[in-house]
Amino acid sequence: MPLDPKELLLHSDALAAKAGATQADLRRAISAAYYAIFHFVLAAAANMALGTSSPSTPGYGLVYRSIDHSRLRGLCDQLRGTKPGNVAITPTVGFGRIADFARLTVNLYEYRILADYEPSRDFTVDETKVAISDAREAIAWFQASAEEQQKAFLTMLLFRQR
Questions:
Q1: Taking the CA of residue 53 as centre, how many other CA atoms within 13 Å lie in the half-sphere pointing to its CB?
Q2: Residue 132: which domain range?
Q3: Number of domains in the chain
């Protein structure tokens, strides 16, 4: 069964809300907030490709595991601007909220890298809560976008342009 993004965000909330939250708590909260988006996208891609009734099948796992962080970050980096360039599919209505989703996803990816790997950086409770809020907002923007926009994004995520 795929990781539930809602559970990851609740875990992030709990870590950030702890009385006397440590840097380890805040760093893990930021990381889990990014991973909520990551696992949300993996499940959306697998569901689009194989349907929602098959999470326990080998094919679902294959699709789910075929996406890595650099692929997601690269596509989001392409789409986060006002005029996405060099994309294989452009929805008839443009990318709309998917571009906003992409912008927040790149920001949270970079923030997660800092939280996981930068020893000289300290995080505050407030900035951690903003990161968690951004993750929720990114997922909501993706879900609120048109099906054509979602499918274009997920198709480009799964298949490379040649």
A1: 0
A2: 5-158
A3: 1
